[in-house]
Design goal:
heterodimer; A: alpha/beta; Rossmann fold; five-stranded parallel sheet; 10 helices; about 40% helix; about 10% strand; globular; B: alpha/beta; seven-stranded mixed sheet; five-stranded mixed sheet; 12 helices; 12 strands; binds magnesium ion
């Protein structure tokens, strides 16, 4: 039941995200579509991220979208969870709006201004270290991209977290096999990704990042044993729209009217 | 200066339970007292300065007062994006301490010189920049920085610096301190190189030349109120710093000068120029090579005043 519910929510998030990007002619649709199921599994399963995520005046559980370029998908999720209004969502990328094309700390429900890759894991490390000092048990979830693993600072953070025995960090790595301009494997030697994280002392899983039962299973396991956990999510860039899947054109391109209608029809929506 | 820093912060941390110190694998045994007193508030982050800076930002989000501490060149140039995006942009109360700044590590070579750090950081919004003249001024300023709750770069020397102040002075962020009151010439400077000017002045006094000496310990926000007065009261202005001629204190003072269309002052800038400093040995030799030692400062001012 839970799985079907999440699937439905996921379709809705995909639809709203495509619409938002189509209307505003902004970029990064492919990157949004690859991580939407991960966002939905975390925000809507009510296993570890419940209410008041990233509640800045009294910070408990946190979520960081380290691949900040997937902001439109996050904004749609935040709207559906009630962190921002529908009216505010529609200000995305417009003048006088904090809803920029990367998340801004000024937005309710956003903890850090991400967008420069390779910062998120260190940020989460600091927040979780604060919990360790205060002897508090909160959960810290992060979504990063495979391209982000090019950044040295990602690995600095990976070593730091296990070196200082900081727990309660659950990192999803959206491995959609692409980065901005090329296939990740044609640029640097990222694989074997799982073994890399393992070697850095992390508990690791390798799953289909679009499979809700796998995602839920990992989140539940983490909750039982909240050691630093890296989830290698095998995903498809542009997931859900046949003509966008695995085509890196959609890293930057936004769909025109015809493409938009075709795309949402595939997800089961009209207009 | 680093000993004064560690002593003072250890003292402050007794009352202020929010202070957390992160070091980049530097300061062998330096923090032993701190570590024993507050084991949960000291972390050696290794030679990974970018991570250390963002970890500090994360701690600040949790309400802590983190301090990152390592050699200035590493704590600035390796981390400038983290300082901009993770500390200054969200305006978090992180203190970035650059130890051994300027030419403190002269003999270690240019890899260890931090002589562009003020220039690199000064254009980042929200970030205060503080450069104490001696260990006493540092002790006083450290308290003020913590009180200010602002992202701050604190630029200090290493050890064995000479004192200028006889006692711990009163200081305020953004408000410069007069070290010597004279007339006609005003030397505005920052950092421990002010010591050289302080003793140069004693010699100049014997020749009937009486420069004032101002410790512009806060480069940002600049004490423009005092600068206004200085430009009115003195004909000859000297700007002294252990920094590149570009972007440092001289840059800040010049910007203010042109912004306000002043025109009646003569300027002499004393700094390390626009070059890598090579083959120097100890810091004192570097000063000599760069025309910045006590005697050279004296001679340069003597020539300058004849203009
Ligand atoms: Mg990717």
């Amino acid at each position: 039941m839970q799985i079907n519910r999440l699937k439905k929510i996921s379709d809705k998030v995909r639809y709203e995200t495509i619409k938002l990007i189509h209307k505003t002619k902004t970029a990064h649709l492919g990157s949004c579509l690859s991580c939407i199921d991960i966002l939905v599994a975390n925000y809507f399963s009510n296993i570890i991220l419940r209410s008041n995520v990233n509640f800045k005046s009294k910070l408990k559980d946190t979520f960081v979208l380290s691949k900040g370029h997937a902001a439109p998908a996050l904004y749609v999720v935040l709207q559906m969870k009630g962190y921002i209004s529908k009216k505010m969502l529609n200000t995305y990328s417009k003048p006088n709006s904090y809803l920029e094309e990367h998340p801004n700390i000024k937005i309710n429900g956003v903890l850090v201004s991400s967008g420069s890759l390779g910062h998120g894991l260190s940020y989460v490390a600091g927040v979780a270290l604060g919990d360790q000092i205060n002897k508090k048990n909160n959960y810290h979830v992060l979504v990063m991209s495979d391209g982000e693993c090019n950044e040295g600072s990602t690995w600095e953070a990976a070593m730091f977290i296990t070196g200082k025995k900081i727990n309660n960090i659950l990192a999803f790595i959206d491995c959609n096999k692409w980065q901005a301009t090329e296939k990740t494997s044609d640029i640097m030697n990222l694989d074997p990704m799982k073994q890399k994280w393992q070697a850095f002392g992390w508990k690791t899983y390798e799953i289909d990042g679009h499979n809700f039962s796998s995602l839920i299973n990992v989140i539940k396991k983490f909750k039982k044993n909240p050691k630093p956990t890296a989830v290698i999510c095998r995903t498809i860039k542009g997931k859900g729209v046949s003509f966008m899947e695995n085509d890196n054109l959609w890293h930057y391109r936004s769909p025109d009217k015809k493409e938009y209608l075709k795309a949402i029809k595939e997800i089961g929506f009209k207009k | 200066m680093r000993n004064a820093f560690v002593e003072e912060i250890t003292k402050i941390s007794k009352k202020n339970k929010k202070i957390v110190i992160l070091v980049g694998d530097i300061g062998y045994k330096l923090y032993d007292d701190f570590k024993i007193a507050y084991p949960k508030r000291f972390y050696n982050c290794g030679v990974a300065e970018a991570n250390m800076t963002t970890v500090a930002a994360g701690l600040a989000l949790k309400g802590f007062k983190p301090i990152t501490y390592t050699i200035a060149t590493f704590n600035v140039y390796k981390t400038v994006e983290q300082i901009k995006v993770d500390v200054a942009y969200p305006n978090l109360p992180v203190i970035i301490v650059g130890v051994g700044a300027g030419l403190s590590y002269s003999g270690l070579g240019s890899t260890h010189h931090a002589t562009e750090d003020i220039g690199v950081l000064r254009s980042i919004p929200n970030l205060n920049i503080v450069v104490p003249a001696d260990p006493s001024e540092l002790r006083s300023l450290l308290k003020e920085i913590i009180k200010s709750k602002k992202p701050t770069y604190l630029r200090i020397g290493k050890r064995g610096e000479k004192y200028i102040y006889k006692n711990i002075p009163n200081t305020k962020i953004g408000k410069a301190n007069y070290l010597v009151r004279g007339k006609k010439i005003c030397i505005i400077g920052c950092g421990n190189i002010l010591v050289n000017a302080f003793y140069a002045i004693k010699k100049l006094n014997k020749k009937n030349i009486f420069p004032s000496l101002v410790s512009m310990h806060t480069i940002k926000p600049l004490d423009t109120k005092l600068l206004k007065k200085i430009f009115k009261s003195y004909t000859h202005i000297v700007v002294l710093e252990e920094h590149s001629e570009i972007g440092g204190l001289a840059g800040a003072v010049s910007e203010f000068y042109t912004d306000n269309n002043y025109k009646n002052n003569n300027f002499l800038k004393m700094n390390i120029g626009n070059k890598f400093v090579l083959k120097t040995g100890h810091q004192n030799h570097a000063f000599q090579k760069l025309n910045l030692n006590e005697k050279q400062i004296m001679n340069r001012i003597e020539r300058f005043i004849k203009k």
